[in-house]
Amino acid sequence: MGRSRRFDVRVCISLPQKYVDFLRGMVEAGDAESISQAVRKCIGAAMEKFGGRGG
Q1: Is 30 helix (H, G, I), strand (E, B) or coil?
Q2: What SS3 class is residue 53?
Q3: Number of folded domains that form the chain
Q4: pLDDT digits over 8-42, tens only?
Q5: 47 and 53 in contact (C-beta within 8 Å)?
Q6: Has residue 51 got a pLDDT over 60?
Q7: Which is more confident, 51 or 19?
């Protein structure tokens, strides 16, 4: 069985203002400590809802 590898990758994206406002709202509500963490939480929730990591 192969070992899982993690890579540190930075990605720059442009989002519509309503998504930026949503992510900022998560930070202001204390659901995330930063915009980056809010993005990771949203991605994690989507992966969980739609069937995991893929591959």
Answers
A1: coil
A2: coil
A3: 1
A4: 888 888 999 999 999 999 999 999 999 999 999 99
A5: yes
A6: yes
A7: 19
Per-residue CA distances from 21 to 28, 48, 53 (Å) = 10, 23, 27
> Cα–Cα distance between 40 and 36 in angstroms, integer?
6
Task: Name 38's Cβ contacts closer than 8 Å, sequence gap at least 6.
Answer: 23, 26, 27, 31, 32
pTM of this structure: 0.69
Q: Given CA atoms 11, 40, 43, 9 in this order, what sign does their dihedral have?
A: positive
Q: Can you tell me the distance from the alpha carbon of 29 to that of 15, in angstroms, rounded to the nearest whole number?
A: 20
**What pLDDT is recorded for position 44?**
92
User: What is the domain range of residue 32?
Assistant: 17-49
